[in-house]
Amino acid sequence: MIITEIESKEREDIIKEMVHFIKKRNKINKEKDLYEKLLQREKLGSTAIGGGVAIPHCKIKGLKEPIVMLAVSFNGVNFYSLDGKPSYIFFLVVSSPDNPSVNLQILAAIAHLVRKSNSLLKKILEAKIPSSILDVIREEEEKIND
């Protein structure tokens, strides 16, 4: 699930647009609940990890499997990153509270990929269609895991 060019320009709107995207694909039942949980998590501390990447995430009951999606902003959005720079890529992760280790594994894998790949951001911004973005992610994962 990929939004190749997210329209929103503010953190809350980015989250709302991503949640709506997930709802339209019948991955969740309660759009408002997920949106509120994600905002609560952001209030604890920004999920922008620097380097142009944010990983908004939370846990909600009733999920059979984790939801992972990606959205791209070509203009960048202030996601209140520690490095003070805008975020361009947003990995949204939603998992069940019944299996907290899965949530941690997904977050760790994304953070590892972002930290180890020098060109992930640039290549994702250059890829214009979802299949190309997935190819970039796979290629970068293979490079860092070799």
Strands, helices and their partners?
Blueprint: E1 2-3, H1 11-24, H2 31-44, E2 48-50, E3 53-54, E4 57-59, E5 67-77, E6 87-95, H3 100-116, H4 120-126, H5 130-145
Parallel strand pairs: 1-5, 3-6, 4-6
Antiparallel strand pairs: 2-3, 5-6
Distance between the termini: 26 Å
Computed CA radius of gyration, to the nearest angstrom: 14 Å
**SSE topology string:** EHHEEEEEHHH
Tell the overall outline: globular
The low-confidence parts are none
* Major sheet details: 6 strands, mixed
Instruction: Tell me the β content.
Output: 15-25%
Q: Roughly what is the average pLDDT, rounded to an integer? A: 87
Helicity, in percent? 40-55%
Output the number of helix runs: 5
Instruction: Count the E strands.
Output: 6
Helix/strand/pairing class, anyone? alpha/beta
Please explain how this structure is put together.
The two termini are 26 Å apart. Strands 1, 2, 3, 4, 5 and 6 form a 6-stranded mixed sheet that branches. The chain is built from 5 helices and 6 strands; from the N terminus they run E-H-H-E-E-E-E-E-H-H-H. The mean pLDDT is 87. A hairpin with a 2-residue loop joins strand 2 and strand 3 (53-54). It has helices at residues 11-24, 31-44, 100-116, 120-126, 130-145; strands at 2-3, 48-50, 53-54, 57-59, 67-77, 87-95. The longest helix has 17 residues, at 100-116. With 146 residues, the chain is an alpha/beta fold.
What descriptors fit this protein?
6 strands, alpha/beta, 6-stranded mixed β-sheet, single chain
